[in-house]
Amino acid sequence: MLSLSELKTEYKKILPTAGQKQKALEAVSALNLSRQVTNFPPIILNFVLHPGNIERAKEMMRLLGELYPNARLNPYPAQSAFSGEFPVLTSGQVSTLEQVIDDVIERHFRQLEVSIDFRVVPRLHYHLLLKAVFLAYPNDPRRISEVLAGYGLWRCYEDSLLTSRYLQIGAGEVQSLRPILSRDGKRSSPGGHPGCFWNSGTITNTKITVWNSTPQQVRKHIIIGMQNLAEKSKRPCPGCGFPRLVFDEPSVIAGIPHTPGYSPLLTNYLTLRRKYGGY
To answer: Which residue, 7, 98, 226, 274, is the most exposed by fewest CB within 10 angstroms?
Structure first.
């Protein structure tokens, strides 16, 4: 475990443009601080499950729980649909992921009664959705991998129940550190646009930023602007399964594709909800 001075030394070595590395060291610093300060508030650790860690995921989460008892683990499968990439998990890894999901679901209840090796963020509805994917497409690991990667899930621009309840900040199409002149002579910003953090080609409004917008402009964007932008997009986002977006029960229901007749994913989710939630 690195000391505070060692963390400072490592932090200074990171390039200013390497934001993810900076965030990683900042997170370790906060975790170390949580061990030293009494009554430090719980820390949420997002734990992305991908081919590089899926086989050791439980072991790694147990170790994090041992080192940082104040941490709450938030495991979820890596997303690739928003960038149009292939699903990242193989058939064998999908099977391992199901075991992790089963364990996380049970932990939601056990951590309320006894002390366990690591605690998870109370987000039962989200993990029931993940489990429902396995039940909806048995013996089809490829399809399971696709849905877990976001394909066909939570298209924010298709349902006003989704779009009107949140606001994301996107990077837009300008990827320069310095503001540059746009065609109309105004300074464009590389970030700060109302839209999607991960996909800039579907719902991101590059004409305004959150710091030069009025409340009315932001409201218009989330009520009708996102749908209008998506209709004009040549390659709309295929879907998303990030837990920070599927953040409560209404989001889960609205984000599951609703097709005429029998919907295996929705049916299995509702079955699991009744089993674990009682309604």
So the answer is: 274
In order, the DSSP letters of 164-202 are TT---EE--S---SS-EE-TTSPEE-SS-EES-SS-TTT
Instruction: Give yes or no for a contact between 226 and 164, defined as CB atoms under 8 angstroms apart.
Output: no
Q: What distance in Å separates the CA atoms of residue 148 and residue 163, rounded to the nearest whole number?
A: 21
pLDDT in tens, 72-91: 999 999 999 999 999 999 98
Comparing CA positions, the residue from 96, 10, 17 lying closest to residue 50 is: 96
How buried is residue 18: exposed, middle or buried, by Cβ count under 10 Å (0-12/13-18/19+)? exposed
Three-state DSSP at 44 gives strand
* Residue of 68, 13, 59 lying closest to 40 (CA atoms): 68
| Ramachandran angles phi, psi of 153, nearest 5° | -105, 155
CA 119 distance to own-chain centroid: 19
Q: Mean pLDDT over all residues of the chain?
A: 88
Q: Say if residue 13 is exposed, middle or buried (CB neighbours under 10 Å; 0-12, 13-18, 19+).
A: exposed
pTM of the model: 0.87
- According to the model, what pLDDT value does residue 180 have? 47
Given the structure tokens 């364990």, which residue do they identify?
Answer: 103
